[in-house]
Sequence to fold (138 residues):
Amino acid sequence: MNNLSIGQLASAAGVTVETLRFYEKQGLLSKPQRTDSGYRQYPPDSIKRVRFIQHAKQVGFTLNDIGELLALRQDQNTACADIKSRAIRKIEEVDQKIRELERIRDALQRMAQKCSGAGALSDCPILEELDDQEENNG
Fold:
């Protein structure tokens, strides 16, 4: 397969040209060779790399995490256990976010249950509780 233009790579990988330029600036995608007229020419394996980046983002890895995973992938001393430990850390981060979101949902449900939705704005129990929290934290 021949080298790909930035548009061809974007189309094949299912991303935008701007996304590819961003990945390039972030160091996630190697700077491609250029034609004499200045057009980027990506090797065919770039499609796989961009899809890897996209999939890693979908499962919660940050761009920094992804950069580290890509670097580890190139390191001959990296073991599968190294990658697994990063996945386990990401699971722990996700679990923490879930607990935080559950706490937020519970607080909002409690406030919404206190409010009948009727009456004057000055008597709104949701606003009163938010004011009370501000006083307790301030």
About this structure: The first strand starts at residue 33 and ends at 34. The mean pLDDT is 93.
